[in-house]
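Hello,

Our lab assistant flagged a job as stuck in the queue for most of the afternoon. It eventually completed. Since we weren't sure the result was trustworthy after the delay, we are filing this so someone can double-check. Below is the sequence as submitted and the structure that was eventually returned. Let us know if re-running is recommended.
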Amino acid sequence: MTLKIADHPYTFGRLHLPVAPKCNIQCNYCSREFDCLNENRPRVTSKVLSPQQALYYLEQAMALSRNIAVVGIAGPGDPFANPDESMETLRLVRDKYPEMPLCVSTNGLDLLPYIDELARLQVSHVTITINAIDPQIGAEIYSWVRYNKKMYQDIDAAKLLIKKQLESLTRLRDAGVTAKVNVTVIPGINDFHVITVASRVAELGADILQCLPFYHTKETVFENLLEPSQEMVQEIQDASSRFIPQMKHHDRCRVDAAMMLKLAKSAALPEKRLEYRPYIAVSSIEGVMINQHLGEAERFLIYSMDDRGKCILVSAREAPQAGGGEQRWKELAVTLKDCRTLLVSGAGSSPTKALKTNGIEVIVIEGVIKEVVSGIFSGQDLKELMQRSQIHSGSSNCNGTGKNCG
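-- returned structure --
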């Protein structure tokens, strides 16, 4: 499955799957309150999905719109700072949609070990953001780089990043994967250097270059820099076009209200959709309110929705005996294996992690059971539910002793 440059994913309807929250570098124009700037400055921080949630989101998106022609991973961090999640997502999408073009956008630091599999998965395009090939200039752009659990700063960081970027670019060419290079045009920092970048990446096999204007972002090192004029960007594009084809049109991925709802519902699913999970479990002292700490629960109430959309109590299940450490939570995961969510007024990190690993999301919240359960089943915003629950019961903070969370 090979696309022509004219058929690059960014000219078609595309959907980015937000499965990569962590980043391995810090750019001086990037704020962690927003998505990564590999593509362009976004409007809001993305929700983060697990690979299984991302596949569900894609399935819902495909049902909603036939205009989706390409699926990509571009953040909100860097795909290869989150390689397990990113590669698993690509595998799931490829298995489900064998003909779907896939693309990935990265800073290139940790890309190299995954290029062969990207080629096997028939990823059609990989975009690398390369803002400099001169380490002195790169040192002005990047605050730090984290590689193999070691932190690099200043010129050492720039040298390492540039080395890995250029190696990856060469390997993409050898693997037959179309390589796109993004350059962020930063006035006074690298605007005079972009043509050198263009020449070098063209030599190494890049197929297309896109010059992206720097966007002013508050609370960053570059917050006082001016954005480049359209004339400056146009001049740089014209000069760079002598070496490599240019992509001049860029339109950020737009998600309408219906798709945002699909994204929110996907994020509310268990991280692993291993089996059908029709129920929600609740920890409650008297059976009316969500008001009991997970570690202190002796039973769990199991709720479902009937055909009329009414919340109904299905059963009550005994909790594993206190003590036993991690084994206790493994037993609880088996007890609640058909539940997608567990609602409690408080929970420790150990049981929360253990249950999450087994596909059960633990939500700390207080309020009327039927109101919260109905809201979750109907895909209501959890923030709104939490605000309502605080009206009913005060603070949603954990008031339990936590003595039985071990």
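-- support follow-up --
The delay was a queue issue, not a problem with the job. The result is valid. Residues 154-175 form the longest helix (22 residues). Confidence is low (pLDDT under 50) at residues 1-12, 34-46, 251-262, 389-403.
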